[in-house]
Amino acid sequence: MNDHSLVSATRGFQPDKNQQKNILWQKRFGKGLPLIYTFHTDKERNLMMPTSTLTKPKISENSQVSPFLVFFLMTSMQFGVGILGYARYITHFAGYDAWISILLSGVSTNIILYLIYKIIERGNKNDMIAIHKELFGKWLGGLLNLIVLSYFFSYVVTILRSYIEIVQIWLFPQFPTWELSLLILLLVYTFVVGGFRTVTGMCFLSLVYGGFLLLLVYFPLEYAHFSNLLPLFNHSVPSLLRASKQMLLSFLGFELIFIYYPFIKNPDQSKKWAHAALMYTTFIYVILAIVIFIYFSERQLSHTIWSTLAMWKIVKLPIIERFEYFGLAIWLFVILPNICLGVWTVTRGLKQQFSIRQIITLPFILTAILIITCLFKNRIVIDKLNTAVSMTGTTFIYFYIPILFIYQWLFLKVKKND
Amino acid sequence: MKWPWKKRRKKLNMPEQKPQDIKELFKHMEQSDDFSHFKHQQDTMSCWISFYKTICGLESVHREILPYIFKNNVKNLMDIKANLPIEDTLVTKDLRQIQDKMLEGHMAVQMKEDDSECLLIPAPSTENRQVTNPETETSIVGPKEGFVESLDTNINLVRKRLPLPNLYLKETKVGKLSKTRVSIIYIKGIANQENVNTVWQRIKTIEFDQIVDSSTISQIITDSHHSPFPQFIDTERPDRTASAIAEGKIAILVDGSPHAVIVPTTIVDFFIAFDDYFITWHIASFIRLIRLAAVTFSVFSTPLYVAILTYHYEVIPRDLLATLISSRAVIPFPPIFEALILELTIELLREAGARLPTKVGQTIGIVGGLVIGTASVQAGLASNVLLIIVAMAGLASFTTPNYRMGNTIRLIRFPFLIAAQLWGLIGIALCFGFYLSHLLKLTSLGRPYVEPFFPPRFTDLKDTFIRIPVNKQITRPLYLRPEDPMRMNKTRSQEKRDIDE
Amino acid sequence: MTKNKKWIKGLFILLLCMNLTGCLPTDVVDDIFTVQAIGFEDAGDHKILGTVVAPIYAQTQSTNQGTGAQSQGTTDTFSAVSHSDKEVIEKLQTESQQQLKLGKLTVILINDTLAKKGIEKYLDYFNRDPHIGRNVFVAIVDGSTRRLLDNQYASNPDVSRYLFDLIQQNIKRNFPVTNLHEYFYDYYGKGINAFLPVLKKHGDHIEIEGIGLIKHNRYIGLLPFNKYAFIFKILNEPCDQGTYAIKLSRHNFVTVKNIGSKVKYKVRNGKSAKPEIFINVNLNGIITEASVQNNPQKYIKAVSKVLKKDLENKGKNLTEILQKRGVDPLGLGDQVRSYTRNWNEHQWYQHYPDAKINVNVKVNITQTGITE
Question: Which CATH architecture has domain A69-417?
Answer without folding.
Answer: Up-down Bundle (1.20)
